[in-house]
C-alpha cells in the first residue's frame, strides 16, 4: 500500500513538472539571460548518458570476469550450489557499485568543495543560500556536465540491469520505483538547470551508497565482525547524509529559495521538485528501517536472521 501511494503521487508530479519544463526552457533560453560557460542543458547532451550507461555495463562485466572466482571461494554458502552462485553474483555486482559510488563521491566533492554554495555539512566551504544565485545563468565547475550525465548513465544501466536480470530480488518493486524516481529527478533537474543543487544532492546520497553496497558484499562472507563494522558505518552515514542533512538541505534550499523565476507565478517547479525529493526521503527512511532491523537481528542471532540484507534468499522458492 505504501508503494502504491508513492507511485500515485509520483506520476502526476512528473507530468506537472514536464509542463513546467516546457514553460521554463523558452523563458530561460530567450536571450534575456547570459548563457553559462558550459552551455544550456539540451536534449542532445544525453549522448553522455548513453556513453555512461555503456561504460557502466563494460566495467561491471570486466569486474565479473576478474573477481568471480575470488568471491566464489569467499562465499559462506557451501552446501547449495545454486544459492552459492547467486550470492557470488550478488557480491561481484555490489563490489562494482561500491567502487562506482566511491569514484562518484570523490569526483563530486572535488568539483564542488571550493564552490560558494557547497555547504560545510558535507565538507565544503560555502553556504547553500548561494545555491540559486544568478539563476538561470548559474556557473558550474568545468567537467560538471560529464560528471552529472555520466552518473545518470549509471542509473539508466542499473534500471535496465534490474529489469532484465534481477527479478528474483525480494525488493524488486521498491528497487524499480527507486530507479524510475532517480532518473526522473536527474532529467527534470537537468532541464530546469538546477545543477548546483543537484551536485550537492548527489554527493549527499552517494556517500552512504559506498557502505551499503560494501555491506551487501561482506554479509555473504564469514567475516562477522567486519559485517557489523560496515553495518554501523552504513547506518551512521545513512542517517547523517540521507536523512538529516538531505532533508534539511532540500527544504531549506527549495522552499525558502528566493524568487528564482523573476516574478513568474505560472511556474511551480521548485514545489514539484520538492515533492519528488520527499518521495525519495520516504524511500530512504523505509530502507533505513529495514537496515536497522536486519543489523540488530544479525548481531543477536547471526546468519539465521539476516534476510533483509540477503537479496537472494528467496531464489529457490521463486524458481519452484
Molecular structure report:
By secondary structure, the protein is mostly helical. It has one domain (2-319). 70% of the residues lie in helices and 0% in strands. Helix 1 packs parallel to helix 5, helix 2 (47-74) packs across helix 4 (144-165) and helix 3 runs antiparallel to helix 6. The longest helix is centred in the last third of the chain and has 33 residues, at 269-301. It is elongated.
Brief overview, please?
This protein is mainly alpha-helical and 320 residues long. The protein contains nine helices and no strands.
Distance between the termini: 27 Å
Secondary-structure element series:
HHHHHHHHH
Based on CA atoms alone, the radius of gyration comes out at 21 Å
Category by helix and strand content: mainly alpha
Largest sheet: none
Q: What is the β-strand count?
A: 0
Molecular shape: elongated
Percent of sequence in beta strands: under 5%
Are there runs of 5+ residues with pLDDT below 50, and where?
Answer: 311-320
Number of domains: 1
